[in-house]
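Structure ticket #2291
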Amino acid sequence: MYFGNIIGQEFAKKYLTNSIINNKVSHAYMFEGMDGIGKKKLAQELAKILLSSENVESSPDYINIYPDGNSIKIGQIRKLQTDIIIKPHKDYKIYIINDAQKMTIEAQNALLKTLEEPPEYVIMILVTSNKDSLLDTIKSRCEIIKFLPISLLELKKYLIKNGVDEQRAQLLATFSRGSIEKALELAESAEFVIMREDIQSHIQTILDKNLIDILEIPAQMDKYKSEIISILDMMVNYFRDMMLLKENVDKSMIINSDKITFIQNMSKKISYSQVSKIIDIIEETKKKIRSNCNFNISIQVMALNIYEVIK
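Resolution: structure written out below.
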């Protein structure tokens, strides 16, 4: 069975396996889904099968293209088009365009010409976390394979198998939101513990309802500017745990189960309706930050809006 070492992604594995068995491998694929869920790994495994090699990284017929700085530029696609003329040593020549959503419009238009009439030996895999950033004409010439977040159970089993104790595996699997890459990163991160302590401190400050202290939160969160979305996700998880406690659900559903005493104490300070509104405020803040709104202003507005809910 092909792709046995890939966690999850049953549809993608079955689809590609059938294509290989039936000799119907496409000239162009688009692997689409959130980061860290196995798209690049599966692309590499497909290359190993088609090139009949376990060491594809050393093969001249296996070419990875990555962003040069913040984007994939037209010059990189021109280089691909020059290389593509050279015939492979075996049956295929495989190009993997990583973070394809970062191709400039000029690069996409240049690539389109190759996608329209590729040499018969070429297989191109566009790996992306956002296919909507790509031209419709690009998408229409690729077989799009949707990758899904890894299930909580599969991630937990994987982490336990790799030496993480069960309670921590549950926590990491939940916080990683289906990304095996993120789960492994958190498992090795000493900063993860400090981050959670800081988040609990911010939540305590918010629910103590002291406006002066609340207004200091944006400055305190500045050190996490580069990973603020993850921080806000973690805050949301704490508040969702409070909602679950108020609904008297099974405690096994609590994400921060190792912090249950803290969550119980905090949930007594706030109503169900207030928790719901706070979650909405944090989610709206995430949208603003993703839209490149000013970091400090976005966090300050969030803090003030939350204060208005609980004062």
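Closing remark: The chain has two domains: 10-146, 189-310.
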